């Protein structure tokens, strides 16, 4: 296993496996109890429409660590595992029968 220092990830570009430029690593969010990395907090690309992506209160993208396919010169994100708002919405409740 190759070890990578978190400080080396700052400003590394995130790109989906379908070629969409998401942005650049801004920070990492950890589980306080286990120390596991939960999400990559990323500064979105200026051309990215963030309305469908999960963002924090500052507009930064929240990319689940489980979506990372590879880390190198860029970080490749599995687009099928990327958190988007439409996946988080609940389906409408069925109407009560009359």
TrEMBL record:
Origin species: Thermococcus cleftensis (strain DSM 27260 / KACC 17922 / CL1)
A Pfam family annotated for this UniProt entry: PRC
Entry-linked Gene3D superfamilies: PRC-barrel domain (2.30.30.240)
Protein's name according to its UniProt entry: PRC-barrel domain-containing protein
Domain PRC-barrel: 4-82
């Amino acid at each position: 296993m190759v070890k990578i220092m978190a400080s080396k990830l700052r400003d590394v570009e995130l790109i989906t496996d379908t070629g969409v430029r998401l942005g650049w690593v801004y920070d990492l969010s950890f589980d306080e109890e286990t120390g596991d990395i939960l999400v990559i907090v990323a500064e979105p690309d200026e051309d990215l429409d963030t309305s469908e992506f999960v963002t924090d209160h500052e507009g930064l993208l929240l990319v689940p660590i489980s979506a990372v396919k590879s880390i190198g010169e860029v970080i490749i994100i599995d687009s099928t595992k990327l958190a988007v708002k439409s996946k988080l919405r609940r389906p409408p409740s069925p109407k009560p029968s009359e």
